[in-house]
From TrEMBL:
Swiss-Prot/TrEMBL TPR repeat ranges: 359-392
Annotated stretches, region: Disordered: 284-335
Molecular function (Gene Ontology), one example: S-adenosylmethionine-dependent methyltransferase activity
SMART domains: MeTrc
Pfam family for this entry, one: CheR
Keywords: Methyltransferase, S-adenosyl-L-methionine, TPR repeat, Transferase
One biological process term in Gene Ontology: methylation
Stretches assigned to the CheR-type methyltransferase domain: 1-270
Matching CDD domains: AdoMet_MTases
Name of the protein in question: Chemotaxis protein
Amino acid sequence: MNPASPQAIDAAIRALSAEIGLDPSAIGPGSIRQAVADRMAEAGIGDGSEYAELVGRSPDEREALVELVVVPESWFFRDRLPFVFLSEAVAGPFRSRTGVEPLRILSLPCAGGEEPYSIAITLCDAGVPADRFQIDAVDVSARQLERARRGVYRPVSFRGGDHSFLRRHFEPDGDGFAIVPPLRESIRWERGNILDPAIADRPPYDVVFCRNLLIYLTPEAKRAAMGAIGRLVAPGGWLVVGHAEPLLVDPSRFEPAGRPGAFAFRRRLEGALVSAIRPIPAAGRRLDSKPIGGNPPRSPASPGDSAPGLGPSSSPVRPVPEGIEPESESEITTLANRREWGPALERAGRLVRQRPNDAAAHVLLGSIAQAIGRLDEAEASFRRAGFLDPRCVEALLALAALAELRGDRTAAENYRRRAARFRAGEEIA
Ligand SMILES: C[S@@+](CC[C@H](N)C(=O)[O-])C[C@H]1O[C@@H](n2cnc3c(N)ncnc32)[C@H](O)[C@@H]1O
């Protein structure tokens, strides 16, 4: 006999939807009824109203209930193509880039670890050294995280055909397999809830795997989760969702990427980030025109803005040598607007070499670097632009957006204040 009363079940549903955003219809009424019955038996409670009161007031009780209702099903290389995408579109190009920060990847939710370990194996097999990537793995279930940390898996975690990775990265352990230590240590495990507003208070990631979570959430929780994901994926970075979730991805922030079946998206430029690309002068601006704002270059506004060996006194305007075609900002802008990032970046690099004193050229290079997620390079370009022309509002706003993405709200506010001051100054002038 199942003693869970409608009152206890209603209270549990309310608690679960507030706590983890669970839509009860996604897991079926029987599962919640059974979980409530189990919890009542465990707590020695026979009365539904007493359990309703307990689940309403006790965080520990809600946590215990969450452990019973979450769906932790996962397996290695689930859906396969997302990992092919990771290897081809992310790891391959990343490997050939030097001097960039390690690749940052988030697996949320990571369940018992099959997904983040599959990510680590993919990167490792693609030739990315372990010190060139960082994987953070987050789940709301303490029990699943415990299983993930242990790293021992039964055959049910290995489905599909190709298990050659087992030989390379696992060793036999009883009737299962244990992941080898170097891979186990490449992942940082963390308990976290996608609905916690603080979840996105961290630098954004190059890639976020958020698979098979959105389908279990109420419409309101889906919106909140998408908001968090939008902040967790770096501009130009990738989001990978589950096979039933592409329609839940916010198209105003993400566009489809990769082959069908990878369920991958790329984060679009948006809001403040677009502000960095919008000021790119329209076609026709002459290369020898004055810096943005028409002001002569000044000394740096603050020591942090200085760029060694670069500046008005150290870098005279260099005429483009005869026989070399001067770069065209308008053509580079057109390439960027068509998202032909490779040629746009290359030509913008040439532009700043031809026009090292032109703040606008550095803003253009910074905007393109920012669009493809090379945030450090973007920041260096915007700083250089701000050094050459401390009144360059576009550079200041872009620096504000980048500081905000890093979570540095004070710096962001300072840049914004300076931008507002110069904008106001321009208006007065
Ligand atoms: C079906 S598993 C998905 C695992 C893996 N991403 C995959 O696709 O194989 C769903 C996981 O979501 C976790 N989860 C449920 N609600 C959550 C929330 N609000 N925040 C974080 N994790 C949550 C559960 O604990 C469970 O481990």
